[in-house]
Amino acid sequence: MPTAFVVVMMRRVSVAALALLALMSGCARSAPPASAAALARLPWDSVLARAKGQTVVWRIWRGDPSINEFIDTWVAPRVREQFGITLQAVSGQGNELVDQLTVEQQAHATTGTASLLWINGETFGALRTRQLLAGPWSNVLPAAALVDSMSPIISRDFEQDPAGYESPWGTVQLAMIYDSARTPQPPRSLAELATWIRAHPGRFTYDQSFAGITFLKGAMYALNGGAATYAGGFDSTKYLAGRTRLFAWLDSLKPFLWRQGTQYPPDVAALHRLFANREIDFSVSNNQNEAVTKAMQGILPTSSRAMVLRDGTIANAHFLGIPFNAPSAAGAMVVANFLLSPEAQLEKQRPTVWADGTVLGLDRLPLAWRARFDSVVNDPRLVPADSLRRYARPEVSPRYHERLQADWRKSIR
Amino acid sequence: MPRRTALPLLIAVLLLGAPIAAGIGYLIVGAFAGADAGSAGSLARILGDPGVHRSAALSLWIASAGTLIALCVALAITLLLDGNARVDRIVRTLAVLPLPVPTVAATVAVLLLLSQSGWLSRVASTLHFMSMPSEFPALVYDPLAIGVILAVVWKEMPFLLLVALSLQSLRGTVLADTARTLGATPWQVVRRVTLPLLLRGMAPSIIAVFVFVLGSLELPLVLGPSSPLALPLLIQERRQALDAVLHGDAYLIALLATALALVAALAHEWVRDDAA
Which of A148, A156, B62, B275 is the most buried (most CB within 10 A)? Predict the structure, then answer.
């Protein structure tokens, strides 16, 4: 009878079954496919030739319809037409990826199922530590020369060196969203925000998921001398001191939060809904452009605007990795290279498509392309690109996020 | 064993017993022997964790209150109908309507209706009963999980009602008529004859509703409070936590939740034996 609980936990059984299948298909083939590291030593033309006719299974977060549409209807037909690659985007992210590949590794499945993964931060860290990623390969992609490799946000992934084991794909930066009709003069710093919250009881909150924790982490930076305090790996003493100061600050604001800080919306979608329905006056997004894209979709009011606090907001990049047992590593490399091309990066950044930030250095592009990117980025409803850059703060060791998330949740559960 | 009993038994064991035994076995392995299993002290830690207590209490509250209210409403309708065949058919048709509605859809409907910026709140402010949406009582994301309970009642009451009506029509009015001829008042007939028979027949459905609600993920996910978190959500949160230490906790709490559901099932068996 207690099946509901059992079903939740049995999802891992299916992972094991998948691994078994992978093992069986691996046995059926004569030799394991060429690894990304081996392919990286070949001339690019040779990689292109091997990629032709391959099927690339891409494990990706499938939670956003606009991202799905971009991949299924814009990217997939182009890589088929230009490179003869069949791209299949399937669901899978974070811990699931680590789980599945660990099982495949334990089953000695030399030919896995997925050839491309969408990863960053702690997922990249876990995959690297357990030697589940192939590489180095990303530095040999022809389009890698266009990447803004000087940017601290792109050249590091939560302080980790990608080291050729993942190729950058996009960037996002935390932004606050306000309604210019309701709040013509929004607070511009954390201190001003605290004053505003006290003056407007019940009109501010943040969500329990990734964006909310990132907002809290940004506040922890600001209250403790900036991001530099936490640079250079996890330091338990620094974390505990920072957490104490952050929690004291939160406690002082608690009575003035939505529902007196006793309840928090589960995710950003719920936060957006509260904001759109005028229950609260700010929303938070982990994508600097959502004030425009969600307004276009009718989810947020058209008078929504994005802003960043002067204390800085956290920016990070997301990447593509190739598993150690990718059946189509050549195809995966060609897809990763295509996704770095100016045309794919520009399309991805359009507010009507996904509005994900580019990883390309615009100064490395031909003038015509630079103009096209500028025309997409310069929307008066968004935070200007130079402000975004100026206030961007890097991610620190993923352990800070982990601990803060666990401790904050413990404090409210 | 004669073939006539062996075959049904085999089918029952294969289809019903084995998957659940495998699932519980899997939980035990995950909790005590798996890659993310906790140490020997983790069970004591979980049992002493106030967060787990609060979550278990919330889930039991939602399941008990939701089941009880749904049951009372279903019984009240059944008793009020009192065998009126024409109205009975209409009520049955109406009761079937919510059944195919997916729980998620029902949950979202409750959210749109009852949140502080929902339809009810807007109607109330249009009629000038209040000036701010926040004056509307907090019925979703509320610590008492009123929104969740209302969704449970809307979704489960028709199911219990259909069971009650079928029982009534199958059983007929013979027993009640006999009691009446023997001089029982209408209230005595209800209390001593109709209600006990109905409750006895409905017991498996009542337990099923209770256990289903206890393990339901989507209802508290969309409508429930964040503090405390319903038990299934707490399990999911710990299973997906970045810190692998918490993954073992998830299996342990799932075992705990399974035990709660088993207790409900065993209580039912005990009541049945008692009645027999």
Answer: B62
